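subagent[fold] <- orchestrator: predict structure for attached chain, return tokens only, no commentary.
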Amino acid sequence: MPGRKKRTGPSAAKRNLPLHLMLLPGILIVFVYNYLPMGGLVMAFQQYKPTRGLLGSAWVGLQNFRLLLSFPNTKQVVLNTLIIATSKLVLGLIVPVVFALLLDEIRSRRFVRSVQTIVYLPYFLSWVILGGIFFNILSPSTGIINRILEMVGLPTQYFLGDNQHFRWVLVLTDIWKTFGYGSIIYLAALTSIDSTLYEAAAIDGANRFRQVLVVTLPGISSIVFVMAVLSLGNILNAGFDQVLNMYSPQVYQTGDILDTFIYRIGLQQAQYSLSTAVGFFRSVISFLMISISYFLAYRYGNYRIF
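subagent[fold] -> orchestrator:
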């Protein structure tokens, strides 16, 4: 009726207030454990003494970074990190895709579910457990791998103590642990491909292998591209838990990475300022790589966080 005021509901802010309150505990946890510790980065520019604290320690500017660059093994540690991380990223992309393609060709749903359960399980085991398992499997004296090598007349190998083999042991065991879980997103992408495309390809005379090339791979190419680009942010993440539980001083030459280097000089040798400088350097490079990867994913893969 004319003259009557139109009733309006609560504002959007009031309607969303319960949702904001639900976010509050998570925001506080992130702030306390992720943002407050960033104040400790000032140690990278100090000669930090625990007895004096952050406010009382002497300021040395970039001295810790210069000292870091003067270390003879710094270049080797960075090289090890890049080689191991890049190998994991490449194989960690190829193996899950191939596994998803092979699993998609199996028509027995019961068999597929059984295989998925088996290959997903290692992902949920910690490297503390897996490290002990691989120590036993790869043991030069009692390991099953070396027993097989002896049976076929080949010399035994000290896989976890030989610089020639240790990197590949890290890469292959990490892929074995993660490829099953990593294939989930590709299996989901395969279900979104229109089945009529396969029917049309079959009418044109394409066999199953040809259908994979002309239908399946183009159908999941966008998600493969996005996952490949986003993985660039982990280029300096070579797997601290894995390396720490599997390496030894014999393989520092090829197995020591930035994370374990920081752990040793920071916690074991109590060089807090130097380890903070190494961590700061790693964080800056990782931040740049993550920014570039998200830009590429947005620019060429139409990927958005929000």
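orchestrator: received. Logging for downstream: The chain has one domain: 63-301. The first strand starts at residue 46 and ends at 47.
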